[in-house]
Amino acid sequence: MALIAWDELVRRVSQDGEFRLASRFWDATLRLDLGSESQRLCFEAGRLREIGSCDPDADCDLHISAPLEDWERLLAPVPRPFYQDLVGAQLHHGFQMNADFLDYAAYYPALRRLVEILREARED
């Protein structure tokens, strides 16, 4: 069973005003590597236009990778310390993101909100 209900994620992202505001003008391909599962999310002007499975080395503008156990901790309803945010999870746990902070700095508020939406779309 997948950790995320991807159809639910699409629905929630498209209806989330906070995400739309933080992601306006964002054109990017984001790859999420959740253990052995990889998903490619394509954003165009801040709207999630496409989502689907991909290879773990698929070309992207931005990637976030971690073992499944770390994703489960990050997406817990009340995350433990240093799992509340991607930067803390990267510094203290098994998360990896683009090496260049400038690749995601401008849209980091959108990424933070996306993590919150991922928590809401988590399958139990």
Please give a quick description of this structure.
This protein is α+β, with helices and mostly antiparallel strands. It is built from five helices and five strands, in the order ααββββααβα.
Question: What are the salient characteristics of this protein?
Answer:
124 residues, alpha+beta, Nonspecific Lipid-transfer Protein, Chain A, five-stranded mixed sheet, 5 strands, 35% helix
Secondary structure blueprint with pairings:
Layout: H1 6-15, H2 17-23, E1 28-34, E2 37-44, E3 47-53, E4 62-66, H3 68-74, H4 86-92, E5 96-97, H5 108-120
Parallel strand pairs: 1-4
Antiparallel strand pairs: 1-2, 2-3, 4-5
Helix pairs in contact: 2-5
Would you tell me the overall average pLDDT?
Answer: 93
Distance between the termini: 9 Å
Helix content: 25-40%
Instruction: Classify the secondary structure makeup into a structural class.
Output: alpha+beta
Please give the CATH architecture.
2-Layer Sandwich
How would a crystallographer describe the biggest sheet? 5 strands, mixed
Can you tell me about this structure?
- The chain has 124 residues and is of the alpha+beta class.
- 35% of the residues lie in helices and 23% in strands.
- It is built from five helices and five strands.
- It has a five-stranded mixed beta sheet.
- Strand 2 and strand 3 form a beta hairpin.
- Helix 2 runs antiparallel to helix 5.
